[in-house]
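Summary of Year 1 activities. Much of the first year was spent building the evaluation harness for sequence design. The harness presents a backbone, in tokenized form, and records the residue chosen at every position. We chose the following record to illustrate the format because it has been used consistently in internal testing since the harness was completed.
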């Protein structure tokens, strides 16, 4: 399926108005910093992992393609992060709260997204595709009304090949783990349609929101090309801290298209032959074309 058809079908399913992202339509931008640990620099020569504190652009979002969705509804949430080294070349990581992805086939993903829009069509779809049930049930762990972006863990899911100074490669998968817990909840309650943005604004007024960046390091039998597999028993390493400090203006309001593209690479980072990851570049490019034209 060509990316144009995928975007047509997703936009038709969600009925998102023109000008919005085809998926993750509702979201806001934030600014902050990223600082890598020394352990990251040993395994990867990418500039943003050199241990210096660097600015980041973050977008927290809700997965629906309908930008008017209510934050009180259960959904997957997103945390997209734009990092850069000294050369200014961006490296984007797109995390989502669902800890797994159900398929290696982009068209099947589009069919699942179409079926998920209406409450009745998803069970019927699963009856016809029982093979997908275990993966979708695992993914449900990330589908909630969510109390706060600050308390959510986000999973970029795909493997990335880290190259060190000598060109040695290590496959890793990232996770953004929250440091905020239920004990840090604010005394106020936020119940409206935009409660997630309101809650995070109140939190940021009191101090930064921190996620630790961990990676799983691939070992024997861990396949970097298949996003549907889990890497059981993989070694885990703390590789940095993402600190969000303030809401930022939407760069697109000023006419600068801003895309988080998970296939953008920089020196020191290699992409796997993962059919879902490779497909995403075309889909995102087409989505940007629609929302900016
Ligand atoms: C075939 C699979 C996928 C397709 C076709 C797809 C499609 C899209 C599209 C069209 C957008 C809007 C892009 C834009 O207008 O800027 C988007 C956004 C997003 N996607 Fe995906 N996606 C896929 C898989 C994934 C996966 C595996 C993840 C996470 C691991 C993910 C996380 C996100 C996030 C976080 C955003 C919001 C980015 C932002 O805030 O600008 N997507 N996706």
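For this record, the design step produced the sequence shown next.
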């Amino acid at each position: 399926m060509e990316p144009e058809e995928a975007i047509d079908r997703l936009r038709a399913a969600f009925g998102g108005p023109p000008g919005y992202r085809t998926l993750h339509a509702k979201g806001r931008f934030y600014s902050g910093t990223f600082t890598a640990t020394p352990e990251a620099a040993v395994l990867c020569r990418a500039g943003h992992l050199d241990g210096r504190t660097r600015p980041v652009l973050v977008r927290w979002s809700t997965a629906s393609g309908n930008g008017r969705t209510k934050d009180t509804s259960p959904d997957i949430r997103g945390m997209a992060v734009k990092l850069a080294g000294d050369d200014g070349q961006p490296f984007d990581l797109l995390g989502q709260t669902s800890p797994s992805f159900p398929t290696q086939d982009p068209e099947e993903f589009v069919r699942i997204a179409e079926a998920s829009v209406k409450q009745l069509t998803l069970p019927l779809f699963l009856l016809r595709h029982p093979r997908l049930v275990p993966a979708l049930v695992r993914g449900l762990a990330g589908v909630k009304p969510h109390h706060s972006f600050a308390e959510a863990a986000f999973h970029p899911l795909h493997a990335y090949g880290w190259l060190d100074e000598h060109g040695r490669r290590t496959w890793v998968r990232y996770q953004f783990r929250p440091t905020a817990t239920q004990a840090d909840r604010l005394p106020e309650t936020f119940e409206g349609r935009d409660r997630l943005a309101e809650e995070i604004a109140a939190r940021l007024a009191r101090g930064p929101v921190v996620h630790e960046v961990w990676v799983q390091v691939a070992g024997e039998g861990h396949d970097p090309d298949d996003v549907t597999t889990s890497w059981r028993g993989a070694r885990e390493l703390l590789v940095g801290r993402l600190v969000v400090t303030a809401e930022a203006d939407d760069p697109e309001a000023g006419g600068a298209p801003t895309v988080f593209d998970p296939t953008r690479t920089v020196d020191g980072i290699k992409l796997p032959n993962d059919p879902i990851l490779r497909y995403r570049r075309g889909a995102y490019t087409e989505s940007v074309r629609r929302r900016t034209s």
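Residues 74 and 146 are 7 Å apart (CA to CA). Quantitative recovery figures across the full test set are reported in Table 2.
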